[in-house]
Amino acid sequence: MSIPETVHTVRLVEREGAVGRLRDAVMKVDRENPTPQDIATLRAVLRADPLLGRVLFDLSQVNTDRLIESLAPDSVLVREAISVTVEAMRDDLGYRQAPEMERLLIEHVALCWLRVQKVEGGYTAFLTQREVVIAQADWWERKLTAAHARYVRAVESLARVRRMARPSAVQINVGDQQVNVAGRVVVE
Q1: Whether the Cβ atoms of residue 106 and residue 88 lie closer than 8 Å to each other
Q2: Is the dihedral of CA 135, 111, 55, 65 positive or negative?
Q3: What is the pTM of this model?
Q4: Alpha helices in 93-169 (DSSP H)
Q5: Which of these, 155, 181, 157, 152, lies nearest to 169 by C-alpha position?
Q6: Cβ atoms 136, 126 nearer than 8 A
């Protein structure tokens, strides 16, 4: 076994131990009127391994799941297809390789995209009715415009954070010569 494999194995064992401690702590607080000590123990376990808390209750994923459920409450097939589509979108945006800040923004882009699709679907269904009331059409139009604006802002935020993370090009003029440098310039 190589050094990285050993380190990885140790981390897995540590994680399994943390999962066991979490399970024990949850059993003590998942009842009516848990003791303050049991709550403190749960808090300590979650703080020792924050990934456990995120895996257990990722609010972004909870919101995405709720929205997907509302899009297709009666069809497991449609819900799963939408889930796979959202996951593919996240992957296409580089979710797995992205730093944490970008991951949060990628999740937000996907959630906003789902909201636009939901509003667009509702608006389309409304417009296919026989009688369209102008006031209601105006309401749907404003709702769609707001959802789309939120989506565009989410995409722009992701692009802005990515642009800030990239090294910028620098132009240096020395005498009659111009030198363009890409990457970080370190002055010693």
Answers
A1: no
A2: positive
A3: 0.70
A4: 100-127, 134-165
A5: 181
A6: yes
